[in-house]
Amino acid sequence: MSKDYYNTLGVEKGASKEEIKNAFHKLAHKYHPDKKGGDEGKFKEINEAYQILSDDRKRAQYDQFGTYSTGGGQGAGFGGFSAGGGSAFGGDFDNINFGGMGDLGDIFGEFFSGGGGSAFGGGGGRREVRRGRDISTEIEIAFHEAIFGAERNLLITKTSLCEICQGSGGQRGSAMKKCESCNGAGKIHETKRSIFGTFTSVRACDACGATGEVPAEKCSDCRGGGVLKREQEIKVIIPAGIKDGEMIRMSGMGEAVSRGTPGDLYIKVNVEPHRIYRREGNNLIMDLNVRLSDALLGTEYTIPTLEEPVKIKIPEGISF
């Protein structure tokens, strides 16, 4: 049964990002497990709903399908055979290389397909999708920001799509012409020597990004590369309850590549220690020094919290 994230946050389906954020902060403050009357289970549901609805891509998928899944591809078929374009052998040979004799996925692809297509790619040779490089950085946040969540703006220098040609590599208005590297096929045939003999494999053409076309006139800004190194400001939403050393993954915010998909950005979160409290799981711990007379006779102490001071009662005869 799918979860109703809008109902969890108490907002309408057409709610703006600001309304969603305000609803999250209000409910997180109310149900935080470190507060009196808090509810850890409810808090986790609220946080899960916010992580989906605050991300445009995740929210779009949720709105369309009524659920969000981080997984991809198709499920397995009968008896271990793939229902989609996966390997029929239950193992991945694509990253195994035999000292210059070729990719074992390509070798077996041609061997078992009889030259008409790859047994590992579904037919007609594997189509490689170009992907940008993953990048990482670190951010330091205050203790209370780790507890309640926060937003930060980061300046990252990375490879991004050219703003003039939007990654095409061509001058604005330039016509396209046939790629000379692959003769317009979008793929390159390579002959490889292997332990089984000589085989022909097929890979995507790097020159045209497997499209078979290249701009007739290169972009003057990126000189045909489609990408440029530049500084970019990125808004980071730090979820409430994040722990010191945990990573935030921002899908598609890594380095861009021409005619391909961008990589991901990984942000390591370093939490500054608090002068009074320390964290153990979802609990906040503090040490309180009391006078011997107060321990023997009992009394009340006012202690600071992350929100407002509270009074606690020291029972009579408490032991050390």
UniProtKB/TrEMBL annotation:
Name this polypeptide is given: Chaperone protein DnaJ
GO biological process, one term: response to heat
InterPro entries from the UniProt entry: DnaJ, DnaJ_C, DnaJ_domain, DnaJ_domain_CS, HSP40/DnaJ_pept-bd, HSP_DnaJ_Cys-rich_dom, HSP_DnaJ_Cys-rich_dom_sf, J_dom_sf
J domain segment(s): 4-66
PANTHER family: CHAPERONE PROTEIN DNAJ, DNAJ HOMOLOG 1, MITOCHONDRIAL-RELATED
GO cellular component: cytoplasm
Top-level taxon: Bacteria
PROSITE patterns: DNAJ_1, DNAJ_2, ZF_CR
Family: Belongs to the DnaJ family.
Zinc finger (CR-type) residue numbers: 149-231
CR-type domain residues: 149-231
Keywords: Chaperone, Cytoplasm, DNA replication, Metal-binding, Repeat, Stress response, Zinc, Zinc-finger
An annotated Gene Ontology molecular function: zinc ion binding
Pfam families per record: DnaJ (PF00226), DnaJ_C (PF01556), DnaJ_CXXCXGXG (PF00684)
HAMAP family: DnaJ
